[in-house]
UniProtKB/TrEMBL annotation:
Its EC number is 1.1.1.37. The lineage of its organism: Eukaryota, Viridiplantae, Streptophyta, Embryophyta, Tracheophyta. Homodimer. The keyword Oxidoreductase applies. GO terms for cellular component: mitochondrion. One of its GO terms (biological process) is malate metabolic process. Coiled coil: none annotated. This is malate dehydrogenase. It is an enzyme of class 1 (oxidoreductase). Keywords: NAD, Oxidoreductase, Tricarboxylic acid cycle. Belongs to the LDH/MDH superfamily. MDH type 1 family. GO terms for molecular function: L-malate dehydrogenase (NAD+) activity. It comes from Dioscorea zingiberensis.
Length: 342
């Protein structure tokens, strides 16, 4: 069965102490952009994982204090800080999972694509360093626009001869977290049981919750489908507007990213029952990248769950077609950005 909650239930107690059921803490995780709004709570949640032996925190400023603070939590991982480009290589050496939330967030009135000019360069530079120092690591891209930054990362890795499409992930877990929350509220379902696959991409209409594939099997009226779909697609903007210029989702994003890190570590640790939605290189549609549910294994994506795209409702089929033009343009913008570099 799919685990709808963040992390395995039996380990919840273990998150707060290293006293209970000692378990091998073997994995090294790096967070790039660790002093930011997402980076700090994400680092805290990763510090609580019993599977992590070392947590490497990198930012261009303010990361020393974050690391000193976190290092006092009595959980197994050692916390190390790295500041600025001269320390980036050391941050990445020997790391199993690299999470990238570096970059600027939206303000009211902006689209995610409006962040492209700044964040494209940040992601490109950071992924170049990943290719040079830990080419075998799982790479989790959070920086927006995800629909373009993941293709940027892929092209950079290809140029460096270090591209493994099974290990490059756009983090879309927040869309699933939101869909699960909103559906359970609307339909009065036990939250722990609810799992809604969200496919496509991570912006506007490219975010497509497949409500007909909700587990446990649930029926929705046409009005409920429309209302929930739009609410899930606009949830990021809802937070941007509520924060009124102070940024975008950070806490729910950290929670979602920590779930994706924990799932990746469980997969690396040999758990054969790990499924997540993520934006990856894909053959599910004619688009070169597409978010869908995948099975994670030791080598990254082990299988794409193509069944999710079969037997869709008419509404969902139309929505899949409708998102393709925007998603393709965003993918192409990312690819072109790397190839137009001097
Ligand atoms: P923030 O401004 O609070 O933090 C960003 C951090 O990145 C800062 O600490 C900054 O110093 C650091 N940074 C900037 N340039 C860097 C570089 N070259 N190397 C390393 N670090 C660098 O922003 P935030 O709220 O944490 O959001 C970060 C990004 O995540 C934004 O692009 C945002 O749009 C995106 N985001 C994505 C999702 C998603 O679902 N994928 C959700 C929320 C936010
Ligand atoms: C989100 O979905 O919350 C993020 O992509 C941040 C944003 O700009 O909405």
């Amino acid at each position: 069965t799919l685990r709808a909650s963040f992390g395995p239930k039996r380990e919840v107690k273990q998150r707060f102490t290293n006293q209970l059921q000692p378990q091998a803490s073997t994995f090294k995780v790096a967070v790039l952009g660790a002093a930011g709004g997402i980076g700090q709570p994400l680092a805290l949640l990763i510090k609580m994982s019993p599977l992590v032996s070392a947590l490497h925190l990198y930012d261009i400023a303010n990361v020393k204090g974050v690391a000193a603070d976190l290092s006092h939590c009595n959980t197994p991982s050692q916390v190390l800080d790295f500041t600025g480009p001269s320390e980036l290589a050391n941050c990445l050496k020997g790391v199993d999972v690299v999470v990238i939330p570096a970059g600027v967030p939206r303000k009211p009135g902006m689209s995610r694509d409006d962040l492209f000019n700044i964040n494209a360069n940040i992601v490109k530079t950071l992924v170049e360093a990943v290719a040079d120092n830990c080419p075998d690591a799982f790479i989790h891209i959070i920086s927006n626009p995800v629909n373009s930054t993941v293709p940027i990362a892929a092209e950079v890795l290809k140029q460096k001869g270090a591209y493994d499409p099974k290990k490059l992930f756009g983090v879309t877990t927040l869309d699933v977290v939101r869909a699960n929350t909103f559906v359970s509220q609307k339909k009065n379902l036990k939250l722990i049981d609810v799992d809604v696959p969200v496919v496509g991409g991570h912006a506007g209409i490219t975010i497509l919750p497949l409500l007909s594939k909700t587990r446990p099997s649930t029926t929705f009226t046409d009005e409920e489908v429309e209302e929930l779909t739009v609410k899930i697609q606009n949830a990021g903007t809802e937070v941007v507007e509520a924060k009124a210029g102070a940024g975008s989702a950070t806490l729910s994003m950290a929670y979602a990213a920590a779930r994706f890190v924990e799932s990746s570590l469980r997969a690396l640790d040999g758990d054969g029952d790990v499924y997540e939605c993520t934006f990856i290189q894909s053959e599910l549609t004619e688009l070169p990248f597409f978010a869908s549910r995948v099975k994670l294994g030791k080598n990254g994506v082990e299988a794409v769950i193509s069944a999710d795209l079969q037997g869709l409702t008419q509404y969902e089929e139309k929505a899949v077609e409708a998102l393709k033009e925007e998603l393709m343009a965003s993918i192409k913008k990312g690819v072109d950005f790397v190839h137009k570099q001097p």
